[in-house]
Design a protein that fits this description.
about 240 residues; 5 helices; seven-stranded mixed β-sheet; five-stranded antiparallel β-sheet; alpha+beta; binds biotin; about 25% helix
């Protein structure tokens, strides 16, 4: 991963750029598109991803997980989320959790977000653009629930050193996925799932509810038990009050 590195000083979105690049037959798996200044970073639920220039890591990794069926695409989310969890556990002291589906929290605050965009071709995932926004040296945030590695540790990090280390963690989990060790990946993911076994308040189509996070189903939907019934939700169907 990262052996082929495409650096642009500034761009709108590394995911958009990587998706364009991935159309070229010569683009190899593991290619990374990285920028120091992402001006229109895209996030989940159609949100923007804001990142101070030169302070953080904003990059996209091109993968070709042709061994995965579209129905199993959440397994890639699991593997990538775990790689980020492993990396942050190694680099930052604190409680590192994965907030479903793929936010990485350090001491309850979001330090990393992922936007994984798959291109399907029949029964195959032809290409996957894995966008990673990792807050490294940013000091201040407009969102109270956001944080960075620096805010968690009190010191600066060298961005080049951190990304090289991160590539190793990404490669390890990706190879685990490729070798079919899905049960191990799922159990590690559930072991790190934020709020698992806890009662949480949330909104769904029926209004405000309270339920216990039970886990995630094979399609990646969140399972919540409420009043004796377990319901499954995708990202658009549920909103937590905190
Ligand atoms: C989220 O938590 O909402 C996902 C954020 C993903 C942000 C990254 S930064 C690099 C890549 N390029 C983008 O436009 N988005 C992703």
């Amino acid at each position: 991963m990262g052996k082929n590195l495409v650096y642009v000083p500034e761009c709108h979105s590394t995911n958009t750029l990587a998706a364009e690049l991935s159309q070229h037959i010569s683009t190899t798996e593991g290619t990374v598109v990285i920028t120091d200044n992402q001006t229109m970073g895209r996030g989940q639920r159609g949100n923007w991803w804001l990142s101070d220039p030169h302070k953080n890591l904003t990059f996209s990794l091109i993968l070709k997980p042709t061994f995965l069926k579209p129905i199993d695409q959440f397994n890639l989310t699991i593997a990538i989320s775990l790689a980020l969890r492993d990396f942050l556990t190694h680099r930052v002291q604190g409680v590192i959790k994965i907030k479903w589906p793929n936010d990485i929290l350090v001491n309850d605050k979001k330090v990393c977000g992922l936007l994984i965009e798959n291109t399907l071709s029949g029964e195959m995932i032809q290409c996957s653009v894995v966008g990673i926004g990792l807050n490294v040296n940013q000091d201040s945030f407009i969102i109270e629930s956001a944080s960075s590695m620096k805010a968690a540790t009190g010191h600066d990090f060298n961005l080049s050193d951190e990304i090289l280390m991160l590539f190793e963690f990404l490669e390890r989990r990706y190879l685990q996925l490729r070798s079919g060790k899905i049960d191990d990946l799922k159990s590690d993911y559930l072991g790190s799932l934020y709020g698992k076994g806890e009662l949480r308040k949330y909104f769904d189509e029926s209004g405000e509810n309270e339920g216990m996070i039970e886990g995630v189903n094979p399609q990646g939907k969140l399972l919540i038990a409420s009043r004796g019934v377990v319901k499954s939700y995708d990202l658009k169907e549920i909103h937590f009050t905190r």
